[in-house]
Amino acid sequence: MSQEATSSHQAVQLLELFILAIGAGFVGALMGLGGGLIFVPVLTSVFDIPIHTAITVSIISVIATSISGGSAYVKQRITNIRLAMFLETSTSLGAFIGALLVLTTPKSLLYLLFSTFAFYVVFLQIRSLRAGGRGVEIEGFKDASPDVVSRYLHLSGEYFDESELSNVEYTVRGSIMGWLVSFIAGVGSGMLGIGGGFFKVSAMNLFMNVPLKVAIATSKFMIGVTAATSAIIYYISGVVRLDLVAPVAIGTILGASLGTKVMNRLRVKLLKVVFTAIVCYLGYSMLRKGLLILGVTLP
Fold first, then answer.
1. Residue boundaries of the structural domains of the chain
2. Of 79, 85, 198, 226, which has the highest C-beta tally within 10 A?
3. Could you report how far apart the first and last alpha carbons of the chain are, in Å?
4. What does the pLDDT look like over 246-282, one tens digit per residue?
């Protein structure tokens, strides 16, 4: 292939990455994700980029979408900053450990870990959908009793839900469980380039009695810090592809800016259904790729 043709191909690829990043940033802002759930499977499957490279690119996109989306949710007063700071103590530690592990972890194991995380979240969300109704989603969160940590740190809060036109109060509980799950999310972030957003959202919503929209906004605020911890390790190790990072970061910021304007206007149940469907599909995609490396073919 000539140099001119190669340059043209690279330009097209960068444009495709930019468009993908806009979509990933938009969906990530709606769901409290960093976009890694979308980036890692697509970069490896469609663009044929090695998973370790895809993870590093994804981590940078996570930082970008957190900067854009996280600040918007803070302005809308949906984000629980106290809760974010409490959980970030565990996720940052987990991200540091995960980033060290990823450099020596086999590709197949990374894919299978990714899919395991995803399917566990799907299970939790389906269980929540079957049990929940409007009363649970909007009114039931304030009826719980706070645990010792939540009471001491004043983690409970409230926000205005634009889709319901009502003020939603909630009481945070299960703080220790949430802290431990956030640590696992941090390890997943460091190893898989996913920001851990989908795990954090589920942890807050299902274990800590936090409304889904608050969990999404708080996760978006947190994931940038978590991802930055891993990104430092990757950069020092020299595995960051700056030529891929630039279009991804810019596109992600644009998409996240659009997503934050929409999220609080959507019904909670719709958000849960979309969130669950996305995670299920991408979990299967990564499972298929991981098993393929081991010689097992799925449809």
1. 3-293
2. 226
3. 34
4. 888 888 888 888 888 887 777 777 877 887 887 788 7
State the amino acid at position 97 in one-letter form: I
Which secondary structure element, helix H or strand E, spans residue 158, and what is its range?
A: strand 157-161
166-216 pLDDT, tens digit each:
888 899 999 999 999 888 877 876 776 665 677 788 788 878 989 888 998
Beta bridge partners of 126: none
Q: Please, are residues 239 and 52 in contact by the beta-carbon 8 Å criterion?
A: yes
Helix/strand/coil percent split, the chain, to 5? 80, 5, 20
CA–CA separation, 62 and 46 (whole Å): 20
- Going by C-alpha positions, the residue among 298, 291, 299, 295 that lies closest to residue 108 is 291
For residue 226, what are the contacts with CB-CB under 8 A and spacing of at least 6? 62, 88, 91, 92, 94, 95, 185, 186, 189, 195, 196
Enumerate residues 6+ apart whose C-beta is below 8 A from 175: 86, 147, 148, 149, 150, 153, 155, 208
CB 206 within 8 A of CB 124: yes
- Closest by alpha carbon to 225, among 181, 195, 194? 195
Q: What is the pLDDT of residues 41-54, one digit of tens each?
A: 777 777 778 877 88
> What is the per-residue DSSP string for 65-88?
HIIIIIHHHHHTT---HHHHHHHH
Compute the Cα dihedral for 70, 254, 235, 216 and give only its sign.
positive
CA distances to 41, 51, 109, 110, 267 from 48, in Å: 10, 9, 18, 16, 37
Tell me the CB-side half-sphere exposure of residue 202, using CA atoms within 13 A: 24
Predicted TM-score (pTM) of the model is 0.72
Beta bridge partners of 158: 169
